Every structure is written in structure tokens, then in C-alpha cells.
Amino acid sequence: MSDEKLLMTPGPTMIPTRVLEVMRRQIIHHRTENYERGFDELCENLKIVFQTKNTVMTFVSSGTGSMEAAIVNMFSPGDKVLAVSVGAFGDRFADIASIFGLEVQKLAVKWGEAADPAEIAAILDGDRERKIKGVLITHNETSTGVTNDIAAVGKLTAGTERLLIVDAISSLAGLELKMDEWGLDVVVTGSQKALMNAPGLAFAAVSEKGWAAREKSSLPKFYWDFKKYRNGILKQSENPPYTPAISLVLAQNEAVKMILEEGLENVFARHKKHALAAQQGVAALGLKLFPKQKDSSYVITAVLPPDGVEIGKVIKDMNVSFDVMVVGGQKHLKGKLLRIGHCGYFNRFDLIKTFSALELSLQKAGYAFEPGASVAAVQKAVAD
Ligand SMILES: *Cc1c(COP(=O)(O)O)cnc(C)c1O
After folding, report:
1. pTM above the 0.90 mark?
2. Which of 94, 247, 275, 329 is the most exposed place for a label (fewest CB within 10 A)?
3. How much is the pLDDT for 2?
4. Which stretches of the chain are assigned E, i.e. beta strand?
5. ∠345-346-347 over CA atoms, to 5°?
6. Ligand 1 centroid, distance to 376 Cα (angstroms)
7. Burial of residue 145, with CB atoms counted within 10 A of its CB: 0-12 exposed, 13-18 middle, 19 or more buried
8. Ligand 1 in contact with 11 (CB < 6 A)?
9. Cα(98)–Cα(93) distance, rounded to whole angstroms?
10. Any idea which fold 17-261 has?
11. Among protein residues, the one whose CA lies closest to atom 12 of ligand 1
């Protein structure tokens, strides 16, 4: 038996012991030097992770809150945005923009495919009157296991008045993302995926162009007003403006330190290597990826289940019998997908264990394959 589940899910993800140790400490007050020291350190280190000179703000929220915050801080009612959606989270960004009264032009890409930057370029070029004020896009579409080419999209908006708003909730600290170099205007993320912390914090960074847009934006904002958070961090007003999630913030500081100790490049390389290993494992089972291999994410692998196998049962059995958690599909892909997260805090044996559990559960479900094939393939791919 095991008293702990191995979460190979795309959030929440496992939390390092060092981070858990910080979380369990007695609470301290946030208007103290002790807290401020930790928070200041986190703010500085987050800039390294976001690859930006801009202030990185921290909020008490799940990731979605920071998506909403990006909309209310950057836009005014009636502003037109292009919402590029390649799955459930892209749809969510478009929905948030609609609810706040923006005019949303949606580029809905077939689920399982990445957005084509040329198609986005054509839409922007066709907007001769420059009505489109911003582009909303998901970096890593967790629902389909697809990664968009954000560097290419950044080239389309950099140097123009248009803003590029990026949902990096499942990608930041797992996939390469260069906020400044790629010309991204707002990058938002959450604590519970590649950032190796518990759920409960959201983060956002804003470019200079974005801050100018914040001055013009007339959508209502109080709790979510970016300006209050930035001014706090810059010590021009109360820092932070409202009671922070003290334990989570200090835990996040520890997790980000671990990421920087491993080295960002090494962290990205680890995610890539294990994603490619997972792809080998999938192939060894005679199964297919949901996305095209070139679009397939390095933080999550989405797999098409074998014909005739009820994949929901397999996923449940992996959890109940073998203490390994993976997830199924969302929305219209419910029952049609198996998604394996390899995001944040995990190592090679976690992936090997996951494929071992997958094999055992697939066997029980009556799927025929060579036992051990995927475990051997993954083990070989992560050997050095
Ligand atoms: C997880 C996720 C979200 C939502 O984050 P919550 O923390 O559940 O609000 C949004 N976008 C993407 C790409 C995600 O992976």
C-alpha cells in the first residue's frame, strides 16, 4: 500500500519536501521584515523565471484569476481582441473577454493542432483599421497536449500597438518562455503546475507597452488592479496591498530557488527529455499521440486510447490499484483521451512507474501488447 498518490497530472503537481517543510511552519505576519525578505527574494527570482525585467506580481488566486486580471487591466469595454483557441483553456480566455464586454474575434483551431502563426498574421494584416487591440493565446494547451509557437506570434505584435497576452499557466518553468525577448505584453501563470507549489497563487508580469495600456483601460478593477501590486513591490505603496497567502508565498520562494538551483535550461531539458521518453513509451504500446508529434507538449502527453478500451476505467484503476494519477480528456474529449503530466517536480522513475501502472491497468482492461515494452522504452530513453 501507499499513503501517497503519485500525481502525474497537469496540475496540481507533486511538491518537493523542501517546499512542504516551508508550508508547514507557523504563520508569520506579512507586515514584517521576515516576510518582506522572502517576498522580495521571490519577486526577484520570478523575474529570472519569466525571463523579464518587468515586475512579477503575485496574487491569491488560481491561475484563471490572473487571466481575468489581464483582461480587466489591459482593455476597455468594446475593445476588439483576437482570441486564438486551440482547446479548452483558449476557449476560457475568449469567454472571459466576452463576459467583460470585449468584442471577441475567435480563431478556433482544431483541437489537437497548434495555431499557425501565418494564419494569425493574415488576420492581423487584414485588420486595416487596427481595430484588434490585443491577441489572447495559450502557450501550452493543457486540454489537448499542444504547445503554441509563442516566439513566432510575438514577432507579429512586437513593435505594434497590439498587445500579446499569454496564458502560460501550464508552461512557465516547464517550457522555454522568454517574455522580453519574444515581446510578450502580459504573461500569467499559477503556482500548482511547473512552479512546484500548492494551488493558490497566480502571477502576472506586464511589459511597458502593457503598463501604458493599463493607464487607458477603463474596465472596473479593484482587487485585481495591477497597479496596486506593482507599486507595492516598488515600495511606493502598501506591499502587498492585501493579505497575501503567506505560507504559499514563502513556499513558492523555496520552489523557485530549487528551480534556479537546477538551472532553467536544465529544467527545460528535463521536461523535453521526459516528454520524448513518454512518446517512446506510447509508441511501444502501439498507441498514438493525440497531437501531431511536432506540436506535442513537453509538459503533458495526450494519448489516444486503444479501440474498445474504456479509458476512464483504466485511469481510475491506475489510481486505485497502483496509486498513480493521470487524467482523461476534457469537454468533447471526455473518454477519448489519456493525458500524462510530466510537469514540475518529477524524475525519471516517476515516469517509469507511470508507464508500469499504465501497462498493468491496460492489461486488466484486455488490451493486448508486449508486457514491459513501454517500461523498457521509457527506461532506455531516460537512461542518461
Ligand atoms: C490549469 C490551466 C488553467 C487554469 O488554471 P486554474 O489554476 O485551474 O485556474 C488555465 N490555462 C491553462 C493552460 C492551464 O493549464
Report:
1. yes
2. 247
3. 79
4. 6-7, 56-60, 80-85, 103-108, 132-138, 140-141, 146-147, 163-167, 186-190, 201-206, 288-289, 300-304, 324-325, 327-328, 338-341
5. 140
6. 33
7. buried
8. yes
9. 9
10. Aspartate Aminotransferase; domain 2 (3.40.640)
11. 169
Q: Please identify, by atom number, the ligand 1 atom nearest to the C-alpha of residue 141.
A: 13
Residue 264 CA to residue 23 CA, distance in Å, equals 23
90 lines ligand 1 (CB under 6 A): no
Of 144, 170, 298, 331, best ligand 1 pocket probe by most atoms within 8 Å of the beta carbon:
170
CA distance 143 to 378: 23
- What average pLDDT does the chain have? 98
pLDDT of 1 strictly over 80: no
CATH classification of 6-12+263-382, choosing from 3.40.50.12280, 3.30.200.20, 3.90.1580.10, 3.90.1150.10?
3.90.1150.10
Provide CATH 3.90.1150.10 ranges for the chain: 6-12+263-382
Asked whether 64 lines ligand 1 (CB < 6 A), one says yes
Distance 244 CA to ligand 1 centre (A): 20
Count Cα neighbours of 212 within 13 Å in the Cβ-side half-sphere.
8
DSSP annotation of 296 reads B
Tell me: the pLDDT tens digits for 239-263? 999 999 999 999 999 999 999 999 9
Segment 119-126 mean pLDDT: 98
User: Is any ligand 1 atom within 6 A of the Cβ of residue 170?
Assistant: yes
The rounded Å distance from CA 343 to ligand 1 centre is: 13
Cβ(301) to ligand 1 under 6 A? no
Of the candidates 125, 85, 81, the one whose C-alpha atom is nearest the C-alpha of residue 103 is 81
Evaluate if residue 57 carries a pLDDT over 80.
yes
Pinpoint the residues of the chain covered by CATH 3.40.640.10: 17-261
Q: Nearest to residue 238, comparing CAs of 36, 27, 2, 12?
A: 36
CB-ligand 1 contact for 69 (6 Å cutoff): no
Give yes or no for residue 169 CB within 6 A of ligand 1: yes
* Structure confidence by residue, pLDDT tens digits, 355-367: 999 999 999 999 9
User: What's the gap in Å between 175 CA and the centre of ligand 1?
Assistant: 15
pLDDT digits (tens, 9 = 90+) for 190-210: 999 999 999 999 999 999 999
- Say how far apart CA 289 and CA 310 lie, in whole Å: 17
